[in-house]
Amino acid sequence: MKRFVLYGRAGCHLCEAMQREIEVLRRRREFTLEVRDISGDEALEAAYGEIIPVLEQEGVEISRFHLDAEALRRCLDDR
């Protein structure tokens, strides 16, 4: 099963919007999503700071700021 990580923080409207869009796709496709709050984590803050939300799969960036649904679908279709 494919596993994705969404980096963001609480109160971020773009992060919340991307997570909602991803959850819609999860109703139709099987994959796991881990949501990581970068707040208070120095390494994550340094890596992602102001570029959140970021969706990654196995360390490869799929989307930044807004969900690229087509890129996510391509990744899910990739065996």
Strand portion: 25-35%
Kindly report how far apart the N and C termini lie: 10 Å
CATH fold type? Glutaredoxin
**Residue share in helix:** 25-40%
**Count of domain modules:** 1
CATH architecture: 3-Layer(aba) Sandwich
CATH homologous superfamily identity? Glutaredoxin
Q: What is the level 1 CATH name?
A: Alpha Beta
Overall residue-averaged pLDDT value: 94
Structural class of the helix and strand makeup?
Answer: alpha+beta
Rough outline: globular
- Give the total of beta strands: 4
Give the uncertain stretches in residue-range form: none
What assembly state would you assign to the polypeptide chains in this entry? single chain
Radius of gyration: 12 Å
What strand order characterises the main sheet? 2-1-3-4
Instruction: Characterize the main sheet.
Output: 4 strands, mixed
Number of helical stretches of at least 4 residues: 3
Element-level helix/strand string: EHEHEEH
Question: What's the quick description here?
Answer:
With about 80 residues, the chain is of the alpha+beta class. It has 3 helices and 4 strands.
